[in-house]
């Protein structure tokens, strides 16, 4: 009965993926897309925990939120350090390492 | 004693070859000559024991090939054929050794030369004494190798190098025939020993296989004995020193082919087709070489072609199943041809290394002894009655006439007898009798050679006179003289006399002036007959254009094939493209393409990751 909410989670996740793949300018948008994907996953997990009536999904959700917070903190820190060195955070200028 | 005849030459070759520096020039000469002389004496004893007392000796030495089916021990076989060959080989070789000490004096590499000569003798003895085909093949290849080394003795001369390579390669064509024949023999009989094969022949093996074996064996003999088709190495091999020509191309190496046929005689008896081929090839060779020899101007080449011609006789005699006659001719030929070659060497020595007969003449006054010797040799070669050549040559012709179905061979042989007489007398005439054509200082400097040269010559001359008469009873004891008409019997002799007469007549009658141009190579002024004469002369002088034809149609095409097809198309083409170069090129391109996927752009990486994750999940969800 809650399965229709699953669509929201999937759509959000795909939006996040598209945000990473199609975004060619801004690194912050990329980080935000990752957050969005994590949120979509967390949403789906809470949904499933309700559906299957198990708490473990919610525990995982809290852990994912924690990890997401830590991850975005470190990501933003790297971003700031990167900005200090390069003076720009354009994604296109990230291509120093080529195959 | 039986082993000594084998190992004395080997010993002298090793000592002279490896310790030549220690024993010096003179030491090498004396050592090798005495070793081979002792070997010759021993082989005379062997001849006495095995042939005259008719007690053939078989010695098994050690086990060599010892598989399940193929057991071929090293073994020696001394029967009458071997001992007769041994006497010829070792005695001629001993005389050649002694001769070389005089002839080659002043050459800086005498120990090497003597070592090669001894080694050659050793391998030839191995060839004739072996009791199986494999051991025979050692000697067979060995004499080819030694002929290479000896023809190439003056290795700084490009012509000698070329001639040696030619001799080696053309011999190798025949060797392939022998190897294939050995394979066939093993397949057919399961053994390679002569005795076993001979006894197995009574079981009536399949005829066509025997024919193939015989034809392959004959191919081997064609290469080694310089029969028509593979004969071109023999005249070129005259580039070596004269004693080498005497040893290799008179008494030993070229006779190996005839020896092979005689040894495989029981096999040949099983195949009439092969015998016919042998006869026809031999007769054609005899005729071909005689016509060519009649117009050669090089002293040694005349003798070389006469060797070729006489080998044709021997092979022809084998083809009509008269092996003992062939062997008899081989023995006689060994003596008088060695005499001819060595006396030719003496002549060449006297006129300061000039070989062209047109630049000789009048030498009868300066070197009379050599004249007498070369005359004996030539008369013996021409089959003059009561000299050595007469006993075997006339008999061969009569026997050929007796086989009515190849009378063709008789007439070719008789014509060759005429031409043989003509060119041997022409040789004597141009060299000794006509007015001299040589330079004044050369002519005045002509002198008889020393004792070490004349003594072997005199011994060989005695051999050329008496061997035929003495060995007649032994060699021809089982030959029934054919019944032929007196007029037929007289034909070869008459033709010989005509040939001798023609050789002298050409001296008495000067060459017509319009014909003389053809000798000098200028354009003839005469009519069609002169042109005809000239073209015939050129044709014969260039040995029926065999070299030209073979070079043009076979060798050149094989070279072209080798360069264009095997080298350029296959080696540097297909194999390179499919092999190292092509593979490396494709791999480099592929890896470059793959590494270009890593563009360094984050969103591309993300896309790739997502695409492949999706694929992974998709394939994981497929029902298995």
What does this protein look like?
The complex is a heterodimer of chains A (99) and B (624). By secondary structure, chain A is mainly α. Chain A has a single domain, classed as Helix Hairpins (Orthogonal Bundle). Chain A has three helices and no strands. Chain A has helices spanning 3-22, 27-51, 56-86. In chain A, helix 1 packs antiparallel against helix 2 (27-51) and helix 2 runs antiparallel to helix 3 (56-86). Chain A is elongated and about 50 Å long. Chain B has 624 residues and is mostly helical. Chain B folds into two domains: 1-131, no CATH class; 158-511, no CATH class. Helix content of chain B is 75%, strand content 3%. In chain B, strands 1-2 form a two-stranded antiparallel ribbon. In chain B, helix 14 runs antiparallel to helix 18 (407-433) and helix 22 runs parallel beside helix 23. Chain B is globular, with a radius of gyration of 30 Å. Chain A binds chain B through residues 17, 20-24, 30, 91-92, 94-99, and chain B through 594-603, 606-607, 610. Chain B: Its main location: mitochondrion.
Q: Greatest contact pair?
A: A-B, 15 and 13 residues
Overall form of chain B: globular
CATH-assigned fold name of chain A: Helix Hairpins
CATH architectural grouping of chain A: Orthogonal Bundle
Any idea what the radius of gyration of chain B is?
30 Å
Largest sheet of chain A: none
Q: How many structural domains can be distinguished in the coordinates of chain A? A: 1
Protein name (chain A): NADH-ubiquinone oxidoreductase chain 4L
GO cellular component, one term (chain A): mitochondrial membrane
Subcellular location (chain A): Mitochondrion membrane
GO molecular function (chain A): oxidoreductase activity, acting on NAD(P)H
